[in-house]
């Protein structure tokens, strides 16, 4: 598929891509859909740009074929141009452009959201001048009725039956209507009867002609363009890609018949919406964009910090208007202007009264600074008042007592003996003034006058002492630290912590308390005090009567030793009633679980049964220690490639057959929560792996020794360590081969022949072992043993 798609893309020429886009637009496809389809066909961005240029070249008419064009075809051509251009080159919008060095208005003629296309659905303009290619529709009604539809010929005439050629080229629609009324009066009576006309005519446009105009000067794509005869100067600039980096938006010239008939200022349209300069074009018109005269930059605290093109007579006030005015935090009394004087730079500080007379020059850089980050009349009050915050220094609010009253007075916890007044000196350093707030409020001390930027802080009594918290641990709903409150009891704290859990012991709750002696001058061997309590129905029934908690007390709610949650184990495989079972005794064993489950089926292979156990924290730690040892010798990359990590479970080697025949023996292991016994079906195969010629699985043959099975795998390879052969059993047990190993072979076992590693930690050797182990725990242990050797 990929190959054929690539071939298809390579076979699409630029012209085929262009036709594909045109067909898609005729079918009503969206631009995004077309772009996605072309991308799937392998059209690159570079090819898309070439196609765009090809399309523009086809539309920049170089031959004078300005015969009439069907209005629907004209509209389709313009729409195709617009959509093709948008799809192949996604012009940025005004909001997308970065500010600063962008020239205001320069992107208006290359944005996808503003095309300046003429509307073809307008009523026929009375001042529209007819020309070759226009289709005119002459409706006659009244005593005489007829409709004449004619296209103006290249000679400027239409041919009316019984009258002959009638020249309409160059006439306005209004003038042509009057002219035709006189001409047609020869064959239609009553048209010129001014007192009581019995017939009348109306001339309207059908299909409009295409005109050829030139766009020259500082535009992106100067050239000759074929446009609708309704097109204006702005649409011509849009078709030319807008002005270039040095093009003027304020002095666009329209030349007609060799004369400059208009100077267009695009800023009039942008700033005021004034379209009177957007003049309708005529055949042969030339739009000329000269280079700019004055380009200035304004930055800082204005709403539109950009570069602006100015006219020579425009002033600084006009620039501020173009920039959208000042921002709220702008310093408006003066602006800084950096100007080039022909030899060097100079700085001018222009006052606000001179904004209207200060003329702008090319290259000026204007900066609007921010206001100062300071206050002229700020007061602030903090601490133990009802409405702390910032207030106005005024004739009515200028003393401490008035400021406190303005803040709605002191709160109940206010520390009245002392307050602090922070004051800023003239040199901007700070000083602290001690205030007796109680006497000032009582009127027994002078009411201190305030100054700007004064900050009055009235502390709370709680700010001056360490209230601390109390902490509860253990079997409560929400063990945590809680704010201390006076007269808090043990019962209060337990209630605040959500109450006791089901597992909580009510016969022993301990409280530890800090040793606090601020007047002590020597060490103390006692580092804490301990109190023990019992509860009943949520109340203390045993312990120190009337015990009140203190800050930083810690409460320990113990777990009841008699509380036991259900502990489940599972059995699966060849067992009559497999599934989960709840343990009823701490001494429950393998045989007990098998008996609970109804015993093994007739197809059970008890010798292959295995026990999977959930690893506890200490077991996971040991596995982690082994992995870290391996990482030091093999490297972390090797460990990662093998996928070696600490697992949540591991396999315990068991002999279920012996456990069932000798209950309570050492073979009958004691179970623990989460254990899973798996009993496989009878199997009759033996697997040979490791350093053998062809690793293989063969049928179990009773009485055959290890060498027999090795021969079934093609024998040992040259790098085999024959003396280190071992056997892995289905139940997870591992044993070294002793002698011939005849008695060690069992159905389902796996014979492993280690290889001679050329260097310690050889990855091929380790991977060979890794594939044969029934659990990651066994693999880790075996690799660890290999490393040690």
Automatic annotation (TrEMBL):
Family indicated by similarity: Belongs to the BexD/CtrA/VexA family.
Regarding the membrane, this protein is recorded as: Multi-pass membrane protein
What species is this protein from? Bacteroides thetaiotaomicron (strain ATCC 29148 / DSM 2079 / JCM 5827 / CCUG 10774 / NCTC 10582 / VPI-5482 / E50)
**Limits of the SLBB domain:** 213-289
Q: Where is the Soluble ligand binding domain?
A: 296-345, 381-427, 470-516
The record, for Gene3D superfamilies, names: Outer membrane lipoprotein wza domain like (3.10.560.10), wza like domain (3.30.1950.10)
Instruction: List the transmembrane segments.
Output: 766-787
Query: Compositionally biased, Polar residues: which spans?
Result: 59-71
Q: Which keywords label this protein?
A: Cell outer membrane, Ion transport, Lipoprotein, Membrane, Palmitate, Polysaccharide transport, Porin, Signal, Sugar transport, Transmembrane, Transmembrane beta strand, Transmembrane helix, Transport
Q: Which GO terms describe its molecular function?
A: polysaccharide transmembrane transporter activity; porin activity
Domain Polysaccharide export protein N-terminal, chain residue ranges per copy: 124-188
Gene Ontology terms: biological process: monoatomic ion transport
Q: Which Pfam families match?
A: Poly_export, SLBB, SLBB_2
Q: Output the Gene Ontology cellular-component terms.
A: cell outer membrane; pore complex
Subcellular location, in the record's words?
Cell outer membrane
Tell me, in one coarse class, where this protein mainly resides. membrane
Q: Mark out the compositionally biased spans (Basic and acidic residues).
A: 72-93
Q: What is this protein called?
A: Polysialic acid transport protein kpsD
Q: Positions of the region Disordered?
A: 59-93
């Amino acid at each position: 598929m990929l190959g054929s798609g690539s071939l298809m893309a390579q076979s699409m020429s630029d012209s085929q891509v262009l036709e594909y886009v045109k067909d898609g637009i005729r079918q009503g496809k969206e631009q995004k859909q077309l772009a996605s389809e072309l991308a799937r066909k392998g059209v690159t961005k570079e090819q898309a740009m070439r196609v765009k240029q090809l399309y523009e070249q086809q539309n920049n008419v170089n031959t004078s074929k300005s015969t009439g064009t069907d209005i629907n075809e004209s509209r389709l051509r313009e729409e195709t141009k617009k959509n093709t251009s948008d799809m192949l080159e996604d012009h940025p919008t005004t909001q997308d452009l970065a500010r600063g060095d962008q020239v205001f208005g320069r992107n208006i003629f290359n944005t996808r959201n503003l095309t300046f296309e003429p509307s073809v659905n307008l009523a026929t303009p009375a001042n529209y001048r007819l020309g070759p290619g226009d289709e005119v529709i002459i409706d006659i009604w009244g005593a005489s009725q007829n409709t004449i539809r004619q296209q103006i010929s290249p000679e400027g005439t239409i041919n009316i039956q019984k009258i002959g050629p009638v020249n309409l080229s160059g006439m306005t629609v209004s003038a042509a209507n009057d002219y035709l009324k006189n001409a047609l009066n020869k064959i239609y009576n009553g048209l010129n009867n001014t007192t009581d006309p019995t017939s009348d005519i109306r001339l309207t446009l059908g299909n409009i002609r295409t005109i050829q105009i030139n766009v020259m000067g500082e535009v992106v794509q100067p050239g000759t363009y074929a446009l609708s005869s309704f097109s204006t100067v702005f649409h011509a600039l849009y078709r030319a890609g807008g002005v270039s980096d040095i093009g003027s938006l304020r002095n666009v010239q329209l030349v007609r018949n060799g004369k400059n008939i208009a100077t267009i200022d695009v800023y009039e349209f942008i700033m005021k919406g004034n379209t009177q300069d957007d003049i309708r074009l005529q055949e042969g018109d030339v739009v000329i964009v000269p280079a700019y005269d004055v380009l200035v930059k304004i930055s800082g605290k204005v709403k539109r910090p950009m570069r602006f093109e100015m006219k020579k007579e425009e002033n600084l006030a006009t620039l501020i208007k173009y920039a959208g005015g000042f921002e709220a935090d702008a310093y408006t009394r003066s602006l800084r202007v950096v100007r080039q004087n022909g030899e060097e730079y100079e700085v001018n500080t222009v006052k606000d009264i001179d904004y209207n007379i200060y003329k702008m020059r090319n290259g000026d850089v204007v900066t609007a600074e921010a206001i100062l980050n300071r206050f002229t009349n700020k007061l602030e009050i903090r601490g133990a008042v009802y409405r702390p915050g910032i207030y106005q220094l005024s004739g009515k609010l200028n003393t401490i007592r008035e400021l406190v009253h303005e803040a709605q007075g002191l709160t109940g916890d206010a520390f009245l003996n002392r307050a602090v007044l922070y004051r800023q000196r003239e040199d901007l350093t700070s000083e602290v003034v001690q205030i007796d707030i109680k006497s000032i409020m009582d009127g027994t001390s002078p009411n201190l006058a305030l100054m700007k930027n004064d900050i009055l802080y009235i502390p709370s009594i709680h700010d001056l002492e360490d209230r601390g918290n109390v902490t509860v641990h253990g079997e409560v709903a929400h063990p945590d630290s809680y704010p201390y409150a006076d007269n808090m009891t043990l019962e209060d704290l337990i209630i605040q912590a959500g109450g006791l859990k089901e597992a909580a012991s009510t016969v022993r709750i301990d409280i530890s308390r800090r040793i606090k002696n601020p007047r002590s001058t020597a060490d103390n061997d006692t580092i804490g005090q301990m109190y023990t309590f019992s509860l009943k129905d949520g109340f203390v029934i045993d312990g120190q009567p009337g015990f009140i908690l203190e800050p930083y007390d810690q409460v320990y709610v113990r777990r009841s030793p008699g509380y036991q949650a259900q502990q489940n184990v599972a059995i699966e495989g060849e067992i009559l009633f497999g599934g989960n079972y709840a343990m009823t005794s701490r001494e429950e064993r393998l045989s007990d679980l098998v008996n609970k489950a109804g015993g093994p089926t007739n197809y059970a292979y008890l010798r292959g049964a295995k026990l999977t156990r959930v690893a506890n924290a200490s077991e996971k730690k040991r596995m982690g220690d082994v992995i870290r040892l391996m990482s030091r010798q093999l490297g972390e990359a090797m460990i990662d490639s093998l996928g070696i990590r600490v697992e949540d479970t591991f396999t315990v080697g068991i002999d279920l057959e012996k456990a069932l025949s000798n209950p309570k023996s050492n073979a009958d292991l004691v179970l623990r929560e989460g254990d899973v016994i798996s009993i496989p079906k009878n199997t009759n195969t033996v697997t040979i792996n490791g350093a053998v010629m062809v690793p293989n699985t063969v049928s179990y043959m009773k009485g055959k020794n290890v060498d027999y099975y090795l021969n079934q795998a093609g024998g040992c390879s040259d790098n085999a360590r024959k003396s280190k052969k071992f056997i892995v059993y289905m139940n997870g047990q591992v044993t070294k081969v002793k002698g011939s190993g005849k008695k060690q072979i069992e159905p389902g076992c796996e014979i492993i022949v280690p290889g001679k590693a050329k260097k310690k930690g050889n990855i091929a050797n380790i991977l060979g072992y890794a594939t044969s182990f029934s659990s990651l725990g066994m693999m880790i242990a075996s690799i660890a043993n290999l490393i040690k050797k």
